């Protein structure tokens, strides 16, 4: 509403100003050129709301385009990083899975023969790096073992009361021995290997 009032006021003021100039100018050929100029200015005044409506702030437009471009670029960069991490995680999981299969095959026969145990699961804890280096980036290898499934002959158990039972120490010594066996077979530090025997935790 304020815009319309200002627009009408400007037109009225300009018409009054044009009338005063017309009265002051002498009747010569020059007067018709003055009237033409005044008429053009009046037309521009009347069209000024439309010109303002369609006028474009170039700086603001460029700033908006630049901002939208930057936001789109940032979004694309974030999406690319997420996809990259997903692919790397998939590759890492696949490599570790295949490595676990190979490691299991490598020790299966001898483990069964010497200890009567089978590998149920091998899991890894690794450093979070883009490029996984084996075995340097492996922090821990957790190996879960189970007893042989075949039924074994049960021998009578003779308990000597004079000797204290220390099953826990025996189990720990056995786990350490098995960890040493794995370390030799896999070429990794024994301290990185954690052995668990199902039913013996």
Automatic annotation (TrEMBL):
<protein>
    <submittedName>
        <fullName>Stage III sporulation protein AF</fullName>
    </submittedName>
</protein>
<feature type="transmembrane region" description="Helical">
    <location>
        <begin position="33"/>
        <end position="54"/>
    </location>
</feature>
<keyword id="KW-0472">Membrane</keyword>
<dbReference type="Pfam" id="PF09581">
    <property type="entry name" value="Spore_III_AF"/>
</dbReference>
<keyword id="KW-1133">Transmembrane helix</keyword>
<dbReference type="InterPro" id="IPR014245">
    <property type="entry name" value="Spore_III_AF"/>
</dbReference>
<feature type="transmembrane region" description="Helical">
    <location>
        <begin position="7"/>
        <end position="27"/>
    </location>
</feature>
<keyword id="KW-0812">Transmembrane</keyword>
């Amino acid at each position: 509403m304020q815009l319309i009032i200002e627009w009408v006021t400007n037109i009225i003021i300009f018409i009054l100003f044009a009338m005063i100039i017309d009265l002051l100018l002498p009747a010569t050929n020059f007067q018709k050129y003055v009237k033409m100029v005044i008429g053009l200015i009046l037309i521009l005044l009347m069209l000024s709301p439309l010109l303002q409506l369609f006028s474009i702030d170039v700086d603001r437009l460029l700033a908006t385009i630049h901002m939208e471009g930057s936001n789109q670029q940032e979004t694309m960069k974030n999406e690319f990083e997420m996809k990259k991490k997903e692919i790397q995680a998939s590759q890492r999981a696949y490599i570790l899975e295949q490595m676990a299969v190979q490691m299991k095959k490598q020790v299966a026969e001898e483990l069964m023969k010497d200890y009567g145990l089978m590998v149920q699961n091998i899991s890894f804890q690794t450093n979070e790096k883009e490029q996984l280096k084996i075995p340097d980036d492996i922090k821990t290898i957790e190996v879960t073992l189970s007893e042989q499934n075949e039924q074994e002959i049960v021998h009578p158990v003779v308990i000597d009361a004079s000797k204290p039972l220390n099953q826990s120490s025996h189990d720990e010594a056995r786990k350490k021995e098995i960890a040493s066996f794995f370390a030799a077979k896999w070429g990794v530090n024994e301290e990185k290997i954690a052995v668990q025997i199902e039913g013996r935790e």
